[in-house]
Amino acid sequence: MRNKALFSLAVIGLLAGLMCAYIFGIEKKPQPPAFNPASNPYGKGIYSNGIIESYQDNGENITIYPEVPGTITRILVAEGERVHRGAPLLTIDDSVQRATVAQQKSQAEAALALLDELRAQPRKENLEVASAQVTLAAASLKNSQDQLDKQRKSFELNPKSVSKNDLDNAENGVKVAKANLDVVQRQYELTKAGAWIYDIRNQENQYRALAKSYAAADALLSKYTLRAPSDGVILSINAATGSYISPQGTYDTYTQGSTPVFVMGSAQKYIGVRCYIDEILVHRLPTPDRIKAKMFVRGTDIRIPLEYVRVQPYVSPKIQLSNQRTERVDVRVLPVIFRFARPDGFRLYPGQLVDVYIGEE
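-> C-alpha cells emitted (361 positions)
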C-alpha cells in the first residue's frame, strides 16, 4: 500500500513537472515598443542634438535682467502668460529713489522760481523807492544850493556878516548833496536796468542742470518697474517676492549661480530649433540651398520636418545643452538654426531636447 502511494506521488510530480515545462516553454510575444527610435531618413544624413527655443531673428530666448538692484515687492505676471511690449513684469522697492526724485524736483522748482524772479526785475516797488530817493537827493541839493547862494550874497554885501568857515561849510554841503544825488541816480538806473544778464545766464544754467538731474532721477525711478521688451510669452520666472535682484540677475539656489530674472519666448507662429553639429561633421553639412532636416521628439513617434533658417558661423565648446559653465569639454560644435510651425494636438516647450537628422535634397 505504501509503495502504491509513493508511486502515485511520483507520477503526479512527473505530470506536474511536464505541465510546468510546457507552460513556461510557451514563447511569449514581445511587447510592442512604446515608440520607434529615430532613424536617419536621408541617405547621407548627419545626426545632431537639438534644443527647442523660441524663434528669434537673432539670438536665442529673451533673457531679462533689471538695470537697478533691489528687493522685489511684486511680481505682476505668471509663467506661460502672454504679454505685450511695455507691460510691467515686476516692481522693485523704490522708496529711496522716490525720495531722491522728490528732492531734486524741489531743487529744480526753486531754481526756476529764482530765475523767474531775475527775469521779472525791476520790481515796481523797488523802482518807486529808488525814484523817491532821487527826488529826495535833488531836494537836498537844492536846499544846500539855496543856503550857499544866500550866504554868498550876504558875504558880498557885508563880508563880516558871514564867516569864512560857514561859507566853506555851505560849499562843502552843496558838493556832498551833488555827490549824493549822483549816487542815488546811479542806483535808480541800476534798479531800472533789472538783473545782470550774467546772473540770469548763470541761473539758467543752474536750472538746466537741476532739471536734468531731476529728469535723470525720474528716468532711473522708472527702471524700478521691470517691463517686457517685446511681445511674447513668459517662459520662466526665476525670482520670488522678497528676493534680491541685481543687474547680474538673481541667485539660483540649485545651480548656485546667477540666472536671468525672466526668460521670455516670442509669440510668433514658429518655434526655433538650435542644432549642434559636431566639428568633425561640419564638412558634411549641405549648402544652404539644399539643406533639409527632420526633427524626432524623444519618447514619441512624432517626426516634424524643419525649415532651414541660418548658420551661426562660430564653432564653440558643446556646453549649451548641459548649461554647466564649469564643465570641461573637448567637443566643439557649430550651431545651425531651423524652425517649424507650431503643431496642433501636442505641445513642445523651449528647452526640450530633440534628435535631428540633417540631409540634402
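The longest strand covers residues 332-341.
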